[in-house]
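Hey L., structure's done. Input below.
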Amino acid sequence: MTLGCSIDKSDREAIQLPCGSVKYTESFKYLGVELTSDLADTADIDAKLSRGRSTFTSLSKVFCISALSVKLRVKLFQTLIVPTVLHGCWTLSRAVCNKLNVFQSRCLRSILGVKWQDHVSNETVRLRCSVAMSLAQLVRLRRLGWAGHAIHHDELIVHKIVFSHADLKTWSSPNSSSRLGW
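Output:
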């Protein structure tokens, strides 16, 4: 997903400050998120998935121990690996959704010991692991939770813009005529 605009060569020159110069860069990390000049999210997601894969690989012996229950191994995955991958993940293009879901499916298959040759669907793998939703669905749920929190916060500008002209005392439920207001 490309949101940025084109950058002229004159904009790429170093900016001179009293303490030194600031050079143009194509990408940098800010608060754990990889930002690029074209504002594409693929580099950031790829870096997060790489960190998640390396963490999963370093703990692969733990995830393959048959003495641990599948429930415990899945809980370890959701506690240790998923936050590593989803930290700061808010944008969801179709490609990002697919990458997140493929990563989750591969990890859960590894935990269960199911190979792709066994022809078991991803939904069946998630059901066997008692995982309710895919990673893309989890990101969407977190975004909705944040939006609900932001709307209920009186001091935020979003709340002031949305509810500045609304008189909440006169609102009534369209389904119930007996209720006078909310």
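The longest helix spans residues 94-112. Residues 13 and 19 are 17 Å apart (CA to CA).

-- N.
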